[in-house]
Amino acid sequence: MIAEIIIIVGSLDEAVTFYTETVGLDYLRRVRVDDATVVMLGAGGTRVSLLEGPTPSVRVVFTSDDIGVDHRRLVRRGTPMPIEPTRARGGTVLPFTDPWGNALAFWETS
């Protein structure tokens, strides 16, 4: 059910060293997506993506079979969502937060 964990870090090179050598994740590849560099790591069957940014944070992305159904359920429950479902490269993403402000998202592959 977890499609991806996204970790925003202060330095990609330091983060790659930490997450591969200290945590033990597998280095998969480094890619450019739009204007950002993303480093993809493997954690068992889950992908961990590292992005560089000014505010460190973690976002957990869950798989979705029907993002419209998930969106309606979140709306019914009053879940904070900064945007409506948005088409992205390879699918549709629906970011939201839990009651404590943790960043989450649903991802439906197209």
Automatic annotation (TrEMBL):
It holds the Pfam family Glyoxalase. Residues 1-109 form the VOC domain. This is VOC domain-containing protein. It comes from the Bacteria. SUPFAM superfamilies: Glyoxalase/Bleomycin resistance protein/Dihydroxybiphenyl dioxygenase (SSF54593). It comes from Euzebya pacifica. Transmembrane segments: none annotated. The lineage of its organism: Bacteria, Bacillati, Actinomycetota, Nitriliruptoria, Euzebyales.
